[in-house]
Structure formats: C-alpha cells, structure tokens
Design brief:
Blueprint (H helix, E strand, L loop, with lengths): L10 H13 L4 H17 L3 H10 L3 H16 L8 H12 L3 H4 L3 H13 L7 H13 L3 H18 L2 H14 L5 H17 L3 H17 L3 H17 L3 H12 L7 H17 L3 H12 L10 H15 L3 H15 L7 H15 L3 H8 L13 H20 L4 H20 L3 H17 L3 H18 L3 H4 L5 H10 L4 H12 L18 H11 L4 H8 L3 H14 L5 H10 L6
C-alpha cells in the first residue's frame, strides 16, 4: 500500500487484500487506519462513493454520509469525476450476492447499495439490504442511520405510488434524523408531500413540499429542490391558486441547468393546464407541445402523460373527439412505466370528461361504471376526486334526460353535499369550485334558488380571483340559467356574464357530425388542410402554427381518415367537393 496508491487501483482487489489482512490480526486500530487511508485516497481521486464506503467501514459513518451527500449533489450536476451508474450497480450486485450473515456485518454498505438501487430504479434489489440495515441499526440503537433507512424506504413507496406507506415511512425518518442530515430529511418530506397529494390533502402536501425544498437548498441539491417546487406547484393547482402556480412555474423555466430539464418541462405542462383553465386554448396547446418536443429522454419524463392529457383536453374543447381520444391513448403508453400515480384511473376519468363535454353521457357512463349499473361513487385521493366530479356530472345528465329519474338527481345531490366536507377539510379548492357549481345547478333545478345562489357565489368568487373558466363551465348548458340568475342578482355579474359567453362559444357536436356524408373537421384540421392546399409542408405548418411536427401529422392522419382519402392531394379534392374548402 504505497504512497502512489497502486494497491488501490482496483476496488475488488483492495477489499480482498484488506479482508486478508484483517483475518491475520485483531488490531482494530490498524484495521481502522487501513480503511481511512483507502477512503482518503479515493476521495483525492474524486471517487466520492467509494471514499464514503471506506469511511463507513472504518467506523466513521458521519464522514461517510457527508461524502454521500456530496456525491449525490455532484452526480445530479453530471460531474465528470463520478463513475457511471452501471459500474456502481455491478459492484453493488456483487456485494449483495454475499449471504445475509456477511451483509449484516456491513449495514452502512447495505444502505448505500439500497440507495444506489433506488436511483437506478432497480427496485428488486432494495428490500433485502434495507431490511438487513434496519435490523442492524435497531440493534445498535443508531437513530440517524435508522432515519436514513426510513427515508430511502419512503422514496421507494413514493415511486410505487403507495401514499399511506410513504407518509408513514417519512414520519419515521423525520423522528430519527438529526437536523443536519438535510438531504434525507428533504427526501422524507418530499415523500410525505407526494403521499398527502395522492390522498387529496392539499394543505399538508403544500407544507411538506415547502419544507422539503428548504432542506434540499441547505443540502445544495438544486435538482431535488426543483422537484419539491414542482410538487408544490401541483398542490397549488389543487388549491385553485393559479396565479401563484403560474409565477412559480415561470421562475422554474428560468433555471438553466441541464439536470433540471424534466422539471422545466413539467413546469411548462403546468402552464399549459393554467392556460387551459382560463380557456386560452391556443396558448395551452403551445405550452403542451413545448413540454413534449424535442425530448431527448422521452421515455423517462413524467411530464409526458401530463402533456398528452393536456393536448387531449384542448382537442376535446375544440370538439375534436377523435384526436382527443387518440392523445389519451398516447398518454396511457407513456404512463405505463410510471407507477407513482394511478395514471390509468386518471386517464379513464379524463376520457369520461371528454365524452361528457360533448354530450355523450351514455359512453361516459360506460367508462365510469363498467359494471353496467349506476352506483354511489366511493372516492379517496386526487385521482378519485376528478372521477367523482365527472361521475356526478354524468348522473346529472341522466337525470335531466329523463325527468322521472329524481332518484339519480338526489343521489348526485347527496354525494356532492357530502364531498364538500372532505374537499374543504383538504383545502382542495378547485374541486370545491366544481362541486359547488354542480350542486348549484341541482338546487336551481329543484327550485331552491337561495341555496343555488350561495353555491354559485362561492364558485364565481374563486373563479374571478384566479381567472378560472373551464372548471366552472364544465357543468354544461344547465349552468347557463343559474349564471343568468347570478347576473340578475348582482352576484359577480361581470364574471358570470363572461362565463355565459364562454358557454355560448363552445363548439357543439351534433348528431349530423357523425354522418358519413358530412365528415366534420375541427377548426385546426381545416386550418391545416387550407395550408396544405396552398402547398405548405409539414415543417412549415409546424412553424407557422407553433405546434410540433408530430401534432401536425396526427391532424393530417385524422383528416385523411375523415375524408376517406389516401393522400393529401385527394384530401384537398374531397374537401373542395364537399364544400369544406373553396374551389
């Protein structure tokens, strides 16, 4: 083991050499000195992960975890001195091939192996080392180490979308972690925030997200600070605070680090949803497309399902149902590898919403009630909140279609009244707004005008403050008489009148739209077809309309199908013959 470090050239040889030395001596001081020399040598070379492991082996766990904090901060900024993740995983898997009796003697390395497995999303190799590490830490009453183990486990549950378990493990971590282990405290708080968000508890989620961001800032981890910030922004949307969410999203877009690309794209998608809520459909479409393209890590971005769902909602708002459903299918494909959210239920809810907004409440009911009978809807969490509101709109549509179905209207009324208690308790203001607007429609239909006005007054107050449109007018045409009553009674009259105008300007899909002899093209499809007729290329159309090439091709494909054409030239001719384009 000379000063040039030749003995340390290969980690596996070093470990074998040290174990051989320790088997011949019981000199603990000498053993500790050897580990510390190894740690110092690797730290000098910039191999922070190996240096941290050798510090832990020497018994100096504080130095080891401080180096691990530095290592993850550097790794997230793509420091060139850090070894590739694949190399580390190979080493850890060899380490984990040892029997439990050996691994139990090195709980800090077990924890480090679990940590590395989490970052590579190699979840099959996390449970065993975590369990062995926790047992050892409990046996030696090492609370800080036990807190780190709970923090890592909370991250695993967060990734798997196990809300209650993520909250519980985060609490155990915070109970054991000292205040100076900022990165792990931030991770535990982030897991709790996500768990509370999935459960619909916006107030607790926002508080945990803000505290997590503060801890990551102290740990100099900019990327996880940005992740905590995007979590906070999502909660702000749930709380109906669109103005603050917009300001925070714009601030995220100013961050320049390449490591924050996914967070910036998610912020862009959030800006798209804010624009959509304000009924600025073109602006929303630009934001969603900017979030999607160009995407060097398309399969990994959690912003992808958000952006595709947003584009689907924009298409539905333009009465382009075929494109909307196609985009939702795209969202399902990108959401499949990401288990942290119940994407399937969320996308099914949006599908029902798309169908319902176009008056296809029978099809919406099939999506929401696949068992074939309408039942009272149990709900828990943000995904269920959305599906719940859509389910009540479906019930209301059925009740209005058949005046004799008073039982269905009463069911919707009962469920909405009960839901408001939960929405208020969880600070889920955006769902309160939607629920009260629907409930106001029911009260109005039942002749209870005072209660109807009180319900719509709450919705109008928040909607006017945050410039919210879509969540209010989603109730449909039944809302119009109630809004007219609000104008007459001087209840936010100017904003109520603007919502009436938004309702009247919504594109309608009549039964004639489905007639094969009269194919209906969306405004965007007609616009693109006109540009094709003038000789514009796909790239030119993309640039002039500020949408992606992929979206242009999707519109063209749908147009060809609707016009029963096999080429762009044939589509233009068919459109002229049918009067869609001038001759």
């Amino acid at each position: 083991m000379d000063d040039q470090g030749t003995t340390f050239a290969y980690p596996k040889l070093l470990r074998a050499f040290l174990r051989d030395q320790f088997s011949r001596t019981s000199d603990l001081a000498h053993e500790k000195d050897l580990w510390q020399k190894a740690a110092a040598w690797y730290q000098k070379r910039g191999e922070l992960l190996l240096a941290a492991e050798y510090h832990m082996a020497s018994g100096d766990t504080t130095a080891g975890w401080l180096l691990l904090d530095r290592y993850h901060s550097h790794a997230l900024e793509s420091a060139p001195s850090i070894s590739p993740q694949k190399t580390r995983l190979t080493w850890y898997r060899e380490f984990l091939s040892w029997p439990d009796s050996v691994l139990a003697q090195e709980p800090d390395l077990c924890l480090s192996a679990a940590f590395s497995s989490y970052y590579s999303k190699d979840l099959d190799h996390i449970e065993r080392p975590l369990r062995l590490a926790e047992q050892a830490f409990l046996a030696r009453d090492d609370k800080p180490a036990l807190g780190r183990a709970h923090a890592i486990r909370s991250l695993v549950y967060r990734y798997r979308g196990s809300a209650d378990l993520a909250i519980d493990e985060g609490k155990h971590a915070l109970d054991n972690l000292p205040t100076d282990l900022n990165w792990f405290r931030g991770s535990a708080l982030l897991s709790q925030s996500f768990g509370f968000y999935l459960n619909g508890d916006a107030g607790s989620s926002a508080q945990c997200a803000a505290e997590a961001r503060s801890e990551f800032v102290k740990a100099h981890d900019n990327r996880h600070a940005a992740i905590a910030e995007t979590q906070h922004i999502e909660v702000l949307l749930l709380q109906g605070s669109l103005i603050e969410a917009e300001e925070r999203s714009l601030a995220l877009l100013e961050l320049q680090s390449n490591a924050l690309d996914a967070e910036r794209r998610l912020a862009r998608a959030i800006l798209g949803f804010i624009a959509f809520e304000r009924n600025h459909l073109n602006e929303a479409e630009v934001h969603f497309n900017t979030a999607l393209y160009p995407s060097p890590n398309a399969q990994k971005g959690k912003y992808l399902p958000f952006a595709y769902i947003g584009l689907a909602e924009v298409a539905a708002a333009r009465s382009d149902i075929d494109t909307s459903l196609m985009l939702l299918n795209e969202a399902e494909q990108y959401a499949a590898p990401r288990p942290e959210r119940n994407w399937s239920a969320y996308i099914q809810g949006v599908k029902a919403k798309v169908l319902l907004e176009q008056g296809d409440h029978s099809e919406a009911a099939k999506v929401l009630y696949p068992q074939g009978s309408i039942v009272e809807t149990p709900f828990q969490g943000t995904t269920s909140f959305m599906s719940f509101i859509i389910a009540q709109r479906t019930l209301l549509a059925f009740a209005l279609e058949d005046a004799n179905r008073q039982d269905i209207m009463n069911m919707a009324k009962r469920q909405l009244e009960r839901s408001l208690v939960l929405f208020d308790a969880n600070s889920a203001a955006i769902w309160c707004l939607s629920a009260r607007a629907l409930l106001g429609c029911i009260y109005f239909k039942l002749g209870q005008r005072e209660q109807a006005l009180r319900s719509i007054e709450y919705s109008l107050a928040l909607a006017e403050k945050e410039q919210i449109v879509r969540s209010v007018i989603a109730a449909g045409d039944i809302l119009k008489p109630l809004l007219e009553l609000a104008v007459a009674q001087d209840v936010h009259p100017a904003y109520a009148q603007s919502l009436i105008h938004a309702l009247e300007c919504r594109p309608k899909r009549s039964k004639a739209d489905t007639d094969e002899a009269l194919p209906v093209l969306s405004e965007r499809e007609v616009e693109i077809l006109e540009m094709i007729a003038r000789g514009s290329t796909t790239e030119t159309i993309s640039q002039q309309l500020y949408i992606s090439v992929h979206t242009v091709r999707t519109h063209i494909r749908n147009t060809l199908q609707k016009l029963d054409a096999h080429s762009r030239v044939e589509a233009v001719e068919n459109a002229r013959e049918r009067g869609i384009l001038p001759r």
